[in-house]
Target: Transferrin receptor protein 1-like protein
Amino acid sequence: MDRVRSAFNNMIKSERYSRFTLQPAEDGERHVEVKLSDDATDDGMEVEGQAGGSPSFRPAPLRQNRRHLFYMVLVTLLIFVTGYLVGYVSHRKPQVEPVNPASENENRLQATPTDYAPSPEIQLDWKDVTQLLSQKLTSKAFEKTLRDFNLPRRSAGSAEDMNQANRIFDEFKKLEMDPWSDIHYVQLQMPDSNRPNRVLFGSDVFEPAGYLAYSATGKVEGKLVYGNYGRQEDLDVLQKKSVELKDSVLLLRSGKISFAEQVDNAAKKGASAVLIYPDIQDYKYLADTALYGHVHLGSGDPYTPGFPSFNHTQFPPTQSSGLPKIPAQTITANMAFALLQKIEGPQSDVSSGFKGGFKSVSYSLGGSKNITVEVNNMLVNKEIQNVFGIIKGFTDPDRYVVLGAQRDAWGNGYARATVGTSVLMELAKAVCEMVEKDGFRPRRSLVFASWSAGEYGNVGATEWLEGYMSSIDKKVFTYISLDGVVLGRGNFTTSASPLLYSLIENTMKEVNSPLGLGSVYDMVGRNNWEAILKPMAIDDPAYPFLAFSGIPSVSFHFISPNTESYSYYGTSLDNMDHLNYQTNQRTAEMTAVAAQFAGQMALRLVHDHMLNLDVSRYSSVLYKAVVRVYRRINQLLRSGQLKDVSPNWLSRARGSFQRAADDINRAIVNTDLSDKEACRILNDRIMAVEHTLLSPYVSPVETPFRHLLLGRGSHTLASIAETNDMEQLHTQLALATWNLQGCANAMRGFPPGLQQLRAAQGARTDRRKELFSAQSSSSQMRRPSIHGLLQVTSSDLSHS
Model:
């Protein structure tokens, strides 16, 4: 007892104390941090507290007799044990704690790693992860899910669309994915049932059931001209044949490019209206099938360009620069056949490729007979919902991979919407189960998104991007589109950011071929796999993520051999029977393979320490683009059309980009993967690549697709290589050069220009030392003049 009393007296007489410091957290709340002195434990905990000072106290020594001392020891121990147990239970955090990446939703995007408990190390290696995923994504499971999500109709903003959204929300809630919805109020264009759209040609009067959303309205008359697919090269053929395009009505067959691009090309040539039909050479279905689509050369709600449609009353009336100014209408193949029989005019050359599948017509170019087009579409205000669920990461929960699928369609939309939604839901279930039951610990978060109004030009997805434009690129590092992943069986195509090329290639090698032999990589040809990489089209669901928001994105499609597209898109024939025919009655099996492909890409991105984004894959893409500009400028200089412009600065900027990419690759090799902070800093540098390729010199309202290499507009390197406007070339070349140089600087991890300033500063220091050394050797020390120092500075800067 004497020893116990002596020890206790020593303890209470020591200089031990507690220090309370008020710490502001990143979420704006204040916390009191409890720290013990050096002779106590180093562990601390955070509890909520009010703003105030940081009081410190030191208990005075107690003087009690032995009996009181004994009871005090017992009471102190009892209080300590009770407090510890209460604190442990009340502050313990669950294994998987949801994080919300959007807010009512802005606050949900601001989660930081410090908001969560320290995470355990990932317990599964990559082989275990892929095996678990393939075990859970079975064709049997997809047979049921495909049936459950198959609807006869699902137009955007309809009761069916809203019911589907609620169902997905409930499924995410059952999986404890902390679901939320983004609600937008958008304007969608629809036919007027009281005033149908019409086409009048001689005695023929047609009232097509299909239509093109966001067409200009009105009634126009002009000479009927056949223009093949309406590509630039097709319209050049017409002009060479001396067919007048100004004020004409162009008859075009669907395919090769989007409806919006067809109408835009026609408008640039002065056409007054456009008719589009599915030629039987390209579309092997009933000739009276109606065709649906949109002609907005952009994405999102065209009446709130660049900002979200949360409430139209907040914003002044404005329109997207991509809205067409001429009427456009779809007609059936039978209607087109009737027009082509009577069109007359000169014949096209066989080599031009103008002749379609109608054997009894010559596909004359026309230009002699008038036709009238009347479009009476009307704008309708609709409420749409995007639905989200999340599986939170354990190391960097504020970094997200987003997997998204369109929920709406013109009709049944089996391939367009049912398959993608089914993949979205089964992937969510599989990954949740892997986390809850199998010990999978993703380092980063996965967001599962169901979009509405995709048929009108990715409206739902784009409105979400616009709503969080200032922060989303700092949080979302990859988007994986699940739209149209199964369109057939036997071949595979993909469109993606070059940053994802290596990930796609590796995933192709790991996912088994649906044909039963080897991998997907073997199926497409091991020596020719890059042939499946297609440029991302403007109507690709992943395109606004890449070209508008600067997020590395990918879309992919299992498709039938020798086909370029799915012919039933935009028709009432996009149903289960037709897709089963394309997949040889193996739609569920193909959907399971597609889900494994998307799942492996997503899980690889959240599993590894370093982001699986290969910056070196941009080198060849950038080199080809710069070479085109270089040759064009030299050509203009030799012809005398251009003066006082050099392409060398752009070449140097490309060199800076290449050196920055090499620097990142070296850093990846040399980084200690156990150092979480070092990995995060390096991953942030990798994430900066795509976003800093967006031009800061153009407006997202006027030019939404701002990507320097993959966007659309006069700012792109492709446009600079083709323009005939010398003044525009001067300006855009300078802006593109610094855009690229700024990207290289961001990749190096410091502000633009700092590298050059550091180099110049070092050179100036060396020159000044030499200057002062020479002056000190003379009998009379003289300080250098300001003029002299400025000369040194200017010289050094020019050399650097």
Remarks:
- Residues 7-64, 91-104, 109-119, 752-800 have pLDDT under 50 and may be disordered.
- The first strand starts at residue 18 and ends at 24.
- The first helix runs from residue 2 to 12.
- The chain has 23 helices and 20 strands.
